[in-house]
Amino acid sequence: MAAPTAPAMQFPSAPPTRRSSPGNTPIFTIRPRRPEDLAPLAVVLAEQQPRSLYPISWPLPFPVDDFLQRDGELAAFVAEDNRTGETVGHVSVCGCIEPPKDPKEAAELDAVWAAGHGCAVSELRIIGVLFTDPAYAGTGMGSALFNAAIEVARKDGGRPVLDCLRTNTGPLAFYQRRGWKMVGTWHNTIWVPGEELLVDLFILPDDK
């Protein structure tokens, strides 16, 4: 039986986001993910992992497609290189699934996020699976993907949240510069068997 997912929600398609090269030629476009994007995204994920250490456990102990496509997914975007047509970045937005696959884990995270926002768990929108090809560092691709996810997460009153491994100092600084607020820490014993990882939990305040 398929795992239950969050109720289907209709979001307007975000307008494509384009960034230009010095010659004013658009370098990339942010667009909704398509099924045919999964294979090239798996390659990008593998290529960037040694540098970003995301995901922390590699190779994954399950199919990469299951990492890219999450239960409760509401929207997903990719960055496409306008010059080559290659898919070179990704982000997704998920709702909290009911009932959760791991009740203890979900209850712990959802309760902290919901308390931080002062909202119901059903209003939470989890931004994740954000990664880009390292060759595009400095182009604004990560920010463009992130902004597209935030825009969708806030549709219909959604409240953006995310988690970040404490040792990932680069992403932590990225989120904090953009006004994300840490509201708790999850002592994660799931991602790497036999280890406890500190995962900080963030919300995006309404005025950010």
Automatic annotation (TrEMBL):
> Which residue ranges does UniProt annotate as crossing the membrane?
none
Annotated region Disordered: where?
A: 1-31
* Any one Gene Ontology molecular-function term assigned to this protein's record: acyltransferase activity, transferring groups other than amino-acyl groups
Entry-linked Pfam families: Acetyltransf_1
Biased segments, Polar residues type: 18-27
Q: Where do the N-acetyltransferase domain residues begin and end?
A: 28-204
This protein is called: N-acetyltransferase domain-containing protein
Organism the protein comes from: Apiotrichum porosum
